[in-house]
Amino acid sequence: MNFSRVPILLKDLKGKDIRRFLFVSLHQIWVNSAFTDEAKSIVREKEMDILKINACPLCEGTQLAYVMTCTDCYATGEKFEIYQCNNCGFTFTQNTPSGKEIDKYYHAANYISHTDTKKGLMNSIYHRVRKRMLKEKVRLVMKASHRKRGKLLDIGTGTGYFANAMRKETWKVDAIEKNEEARSFAKEQFRLNVKDEKALDELAAGSYDVITLWHVLEHLEKLEHTWTRLNELLTDKGILIIAVPNYSSYDAKKYKANWAAYDVPRHIWHFTPATMQRFGIKHGFIMAAHYPMPFDAFYVSMLSEKNTGSKLSFLKGAYTGTIAWFHSLVKKEKSSSIIYIFRKKQDEK
Ligand SMILES: [Zn+2]
Fold first, then answer.
1. According to a count of CB atoms within 10 Å of the terminal CB, is the N or C end of the chain lower?
2. Which residues are placed with Cβ below 5 angstroms of ligand 1, an ion?
3. CA of 92 relative to ligand 1 center, distance in Å
4. What tens digit of pLDDT does each residue of 271-289 get?
5. Considering only CA atoms, which of 237, 214, 243 is closest in space to residue 150?
6. Taking the model in full, what pTM does it have?
7. How far is the CA of 89 from the centre of ligand 1 (A)?
């Protein structure tokens, strides 16, 4: 599930204020995180607090080409440009607001009122989907790591549902969450001790069997630094699990600039299986497997229809979602979102 869309799932809870609280909690995850080192390929324009990318974070190439302009249909209606590296094809949102500037892009009163008409159906579907996905995630962690129990770090844990589910399976779980309100929710609801974003630099190297980032990496400013830390924090046999939207998916190609998972400016980085593999290799990982996330196609297609101004967004989205789902069955590289499993590369003996 896309974190930035989770509030829809929470509509069944008690009233608008709680929904808004949860929304803010979930949406301030990581995005304006302040790690200590800046990747050298990224230059921040300090005065305006804009993240301007002058060189590709993946290959350091400086031939960056404009691809298209996307609108923030979620919060502000502002426009942002998508750029691509001519050398390696890595794609990103250019000039995203940074630091405190990003906060307002996570306030989606507009979006919540927008969805009022389809409350019941949308919510009950996503409630069920989330429950199912939670089970799938737990199962996947155990399958990928070949472990019934171990030590897990969940980065961008939000309100802590997944971290709690893993702990119930007797895993030892650490969780990191940037947003203070989300952290206190996780503490009250699940008694989880969630750390703030500084923990990423403070946790001990080689201490986790599994690290998970569920729809988080695309939000993180310090992309290169995060990849480096992921490798350091894992044990030698550790497993890294990353779920991100796939901009080479069927639905992305169909909706173009209206594809909801561009989600500008909240999503800075737009990955494909090819660029994810390259990032992994660059940071000492081998991509062991990748799995499609079929439900995302329905959800993203419905939101994309809404972005195009379609009046029958639910039905049209469901139709496109079904076609997209078939495409992902035939070729998982066409899936709307993909879960990647990485193992650390072992030194040759
Ligand atoms: Zn590049």
1. C
2. 56, 58-59, 61, 85, 87-88, 90
3. 10
4. 999 999 999 999 999 999 9
5. 237
6. 0.82
7. 6
